[in-house]
Amino acid sequence: MWAVARRPRWIAALALALLVAAGFAALSQWQLARSVSTGTVVDQGTEQVVPLSRVAKPQSPVSERAATQRVSASGRWVSRDYSLVSDRLNNGTAGYWVVGHFAARTQSGATAGLVVAVGWSPNRAGAAAAASDLSRKSDTGSVSLTGRYLPPEAAEDSDFEHGKISTVSPAALLNTWTVRDPAGIYGGYLVSAEKTAGLTLIDAPKPINGVEVNLLNVFYAIEWVVFAGFAIFLWYRLVRDAWEREQEEAAEAAEAQTELMAQTAEVH
Fold this sequence. Notes:
Blueprint: H1 2-5, H2 8-37, E1 40-42, E2 50-51, H3 52-55, E3 70-90, E4 93-105, E5 111-121, H4 124-137, E6 143-150, H5 170-173, E7 185-192, E8 210-212, H6 215-267
Parallel strand pairs: 2-3, 5-7
Antiparallel strand pairs: 1-8, 3-4, 3-6, 4-5, 6-7
Helix pairs in contact: 2-6
């Protein structure tokens, strides 16, 4: 078959098929590029500060809408309910978080417990000193907080029995609090945006906005790839058909020659 394919006619046909396939491949690449360029940027509006009560409710899981949202809350600190959370990275450096119990006012006027990550320290001594200072300075006065609201972490990764807390789980931290809130607790926790003496602000960057890919353009891109493959296959099929016809014609010619020779032998 390849002897047929090497003929000038079919070499020219192959060049044409490759040219068409290249054009289809270029169209496929263009469609893929458009699938992203025309995609919709998903902006969840997380950077606009909204009241916590608007996106979250006590005793409820953290919704997709509430996760990573910057929120504000009003209430008071519970002075004795500060804890240290170990193994916390801040800009790539391991250290400790100081987390506190904030009694946040709900829409009904009752208070609900909100775990607040107050700040970060590179060592346990610094975190413990800051927590002790916060306990002494906390009062019953009302304050307002802003920060990023995040989903809870798995409590199983902490060893509460031996006093080692390495995850922020409101449900687990509740067991260490000395005061219970009438409205229960929030399912997530707040990373405070307020600077606290002796502590470094916790890095809580905004989420990366995703892009919804235009699937119709992706489908078109796949179609063009199929067309490119079909152009090469069509050339192969035509060459094979030509070779098969020549084989059939050669076989028929050989059969006719054999019959003619047989007839000639009978005459003689």
